[in-house]
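User: Okay, second chain of the day. Same drill as before: sequence in, structure tokens out.
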Amino acid sequence: MIEGGIPLKGEVTISGAKNAALPILAATLLAPGIHHLSNVPNLADIRTTKKLLGSLGASFSDDKGLAVDTVNLSSWEAPYELVKTMRAAVLVLGPLVARAGRARVSLPGGCAIGARPINLHLKGLEEMGVKVTLQHGYVEATVKRLQGANIILDIPTVTGTENLMMAATLARGTTVIRNAAQEPEVADLANFLTAMGADIQGIGSDVLTIRGVKNLGPASYSIMPDRIEAGTFLAAAAITRGEVTIRHAPIDHLMGADKTGAARN
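Assistant: Same drill. Structure tokens below.
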């Protein structure tokens, strides 16, 4: 029960963005080693992702934030029991194919593809030379070596852009992703991949150019603050005519953009 009519006052600190942390955690699979991530939010989806990565061979420790050890990759299967609880689990598809040359990932929802299909993920991977089959509610993908490709997305899918960008970092040649998603979380992933040694141009735009490299290395990185959480507190302060100090606010990400991508108030 909420008694309204009271102006909100005080101070809050914005936590790390879940929608940036999830693909970045998946991206640690690309490079064997110990990655150090800070500002990782303590949320159910994060814990599920850690379970998923753990089932693939990763291990974790609290060392200057979150240390992710991806030296040993013991499996390439993301089981339905974990994927069904979190659609973003499909983000391990690109990294597994890039590093291990194969992946078996449950469809988000099992046998039913559902209202938010991953067909654009699969189409892009096929253009990069991946053999994709669907069996018993699982995507099975194999490839000897990913090849650069010119990929045009029908719609600017966030997870699709992220999956393909991660895969392209270790592909032979250059991959261009057109009509790519431009969300700040996509750019945060691209910046993390760059810290690992990836060659990505056009970060933040709708055209990403990724020149594949032979190997990536572990990186230290701080997850961007959550623009949705910050916006929620801003709205709450405004509608109650309160006065709230928001620390670690992603100010640049709270501004709109015109059709040219230029920021505006």
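DSSP finds eight helices and 16 strands in the chain.

User: Thanks, on to the next one.
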